C-alpha cells in the first residue's frame, strides 16, 4: 500500500516529463502556405453561404455598417499568419489575393489580412467620375443571375436603428428637412400635384364595397401579400400606364426589387428598392449620349453617378414596402439612400454645366414608404454650399396618412399624386435634364468638373 503511494507520483512525473512541447503557429518564422491557400476558399465559402439565406425579411447584405465587435456568424478555425508574412507581400499582391472582396463580409476580410482595402478608406476621386469600374461576377455570371441569388429581403437590418441614420448623415444624407427648407417654387409644385385629380381604376381591391375586406385580408399579412394586394394601388406602374396608351410615359423605365449595381452607393450596400422609376437611355438624343458617354462608360463593366441599373438612368422615384409588423423608418432609410443617389446625380450634372444654383433646395425626386395601413410620401432635395460647392441632401415630408381613415377617403391619395408626378412633373424634369446635357462642353475633362467633395 505504501509502495503504491510512493509509485504514483513517480508515474505522474514520468508522464509529465514525456509530454511534448506545445509549439504555437504564431511563433513560426516561416511563411504560412496553408493560410494563403485557404483564404480564397474561405472567401468562396462565405459568398456561397450568404447567397443561400432564405428569402424572408431584408437582411444584412454587407456588415460594414455594423460595429466591428458584433459577430455576424461562425468562422472556421485556422492557423494565424506571422506578421512577417505580410511584410514580404506588397499591397498590390495583398489586394490580388482577395478578388471578391467587394462582396465579402468586411469583418472576415479584416481577419484574413492586416489592412483594409483602399476602397474602404479612400473617397471617390474625379477620375472615378469618368472611368469608374465595378465588381464583376466571377466565371462570367450575368448580373441578372447574381441579382436573383441575393435574398430578396437581405439588407434591411443595415437600416435599423440610429447607427444607420448616423452613417447616412456622415455621408451628407439627412432623413429630415434642412433649416433652410425647400424653395417656394417646390412647395407650390408638390401642392399642385396633391390637388390635381386623376381617374382611378374602377375595378380593384380598393373598390368601395370591398375595401374593408381588403384591409382585413392584409392586416397580418407578409410583405409579399402587401405588395401583391395594394402596392400598385398606391404607386402605379409607369410602364403599365404606358402600355395602356399613355405616350407621355414612354421615356420611363422601371425596376422591381433590383440592385442598383450600376450606381455608386453612399455605403457599401447597393440600394435595392422594391420599385423604382427613372429614364431609359432612349429618352436622350444621340448627341446627348455622346456628351454623357465619358461619365457613363460601359454600362456592363462600369458604374456611374448617373445610372441606377444598366437600363435606368437618372432615377427619380422609389417605393419601399414593409409587412404589417414592419417599421416604416426602415423603409424611409432605404428610400433616403436611394433618392440621395438620384439627387446627387442631378447635382453633379448641373455642376458640370456650371448651373447648380438652379436646383439648390429644389425637390428633384420622390419616395413612398408604406405598409398595410400607412403611407408616407417624401420629396428629396439638395442644399448647396456656395463656397465649396459641397452638397448635402434632405427629405421633405409631403404627405402622411392612414389608408382606412374616414372609411377610406384617403386611399387613392398616393395613387393620384404619383400619377401627377408621372404626367405633370416628369416632362418638365426631363426637359430640364436635356437642357443641361445640351449645355455640357463636348471636350469636358476631369480638370473641368470641379466635383470633388460633393
From TrEMBL:
Residues 7-25 have a biased composition (Basic residues). InterPro entries: DUF7924. Residues 1-96 are annotated as: Disordered. Pfam families: DUF7924. Residues 45-55 have a biased composition (Low complexity). It comes from the Eukaryota. Residues 211-437 form the DUF7924 domain. Residues 82-92 have a biased composition (Polar residues). This is DUF7924 domain-containing protein. It comes from Melanomma pulvis-pyrius CBS 109.77.
